[in-house]
Amino acid sequence: MKNGDQPINYCMMQQVGDTSFRANRFNDPKEYNRPMIGLTKREYFAAMAMNSIHDEVSHLTISYISKQLGIEEDEYKYDIHYDQFFAIRCKERANSLLKELED
After folding, report:
1. Do 55 and 93 reside in the same domain of the chain?
2. Domain housing 91
3. How many domains is the chain built from?
4. Which pLDDT belongs to residue 37?
5. Radius of gyration for the chain, computed over Cα atoms and rounded to the nearest angstrom
6. Do both 49 and 64 map to the same domain?
7. Which of 90, 94, 67, 70 shows the shortest CA–CA distance to 8?
8. Quick one: 55 and 82 in the same domain?
9. CA 73/CA 58 separation, integer angstroms
10. Which pTM was predicted?
11. What is the pLDDT of residues 10-47, one digit of tens each?
12. Residues 36, 14: contact at Cβ < 8 Å?
């Protein structure tokens, strides 16, 4: 498994029904414990990048974003393309950080 697909922190959950879980307690019977992965490092780093990138991209022009997405300016729709551009930038930052950590 790649570093970016590893969880930030494994946690043990106690199964308390067919599909229900709660946080594991110290004295819980071990046969009902299930490891849960939660967020991967890639997801976590992408979320952290979102905090800083929002300020960075909020001032960019429609022309620039359209060009980066490969669409014409008259096709640009803020509620679709701004979010798409923003998500791509966050993913790129997360992947760059993971690559640096693996080297």
Report:
1. yes
2. 41-102
3. 2
4. 64
5. 20
6. yes
7. 94
8. yes
9. 17
10. 0.56
11. 677 777 888 887 777 777 776 667 666 677 787 787 78
12. no
Cβ-based burial of 70 (10 A; exposed 0-12, middle 13-18, buried ≥19): exposed
- Which residue has 């969880």 as its token pair? 7
Judge whether 76 and 65 are in contact, CB under 8 Å.
Answer: yes
**Residue 42: closest CA among 102, 86, 84:** 102
* 25 and 69 both lie in a single domain: no
Which tokens belong to 64? 């620039």
Q: How far apart are CA 52 and CA 44, in angstroms?
A: 14
Tokens coding 43: 């997801």
Tell me which DSSP letter residue 32 carries.
G
Alpha carbon of residue 101 to chain centroid: 17
pLDDT per residue over 39-70, tens digit each? 778 778 778 877 777 777 777 889 999 999 99
Question: In sequence order, which residues have a C-beta less than 8 Å from that of residue 2 and are 6 or more positions away?
Answer: 98, 102
| Position 64, amino acid | Y
